[in-house]
Amino acid sequence: MKSEQTEISPFTGKKSVILEITPTGLETRICMDTGYTTNSNYKIDGENIDEIESSTSKLIKELRFTDVLLKQYWYLTTAMFSTGMIYPEGTPEEWSWVYAPIVDIAEKNSKNFPVPGKEGEYYTTRIATEVAEYYKPLEFENVCKRVGMAKPVKKTI
What is the pTM of this model? Predict the structure, then answer.
């Protein structure tokens, strides 16, 4: 996957969008300032948009951005890592990035976390939303650093 290209963000006007191109030609973009992401499958009025949005939160759908230059939609990202999860939370008028860490479940408490459809099987870790950390909408790069995934992006105006 080719991924060292950066482009101008349609949100901030800064060179903070990372472009990756897969071997099959799929182009994905993520704005490291805002956390919005798009790919070449998110075509405006594309046949697959209803399917994509059917498993997307109301907030993400409400904050969808239409990029007329790319002819694609951009969505706030969600991401799961071995250390935790990043996701947006709130209302369209007032929202935050959230980092919720993954924590171990003590064996004595595991019975409270059964794996659906698997009799006698229990989760050993969970997402600890009660100790989540909150970041402002333009602090996406900071929340990415928190989970150890962000690399510095040279930004120019």
Answer: 0.85
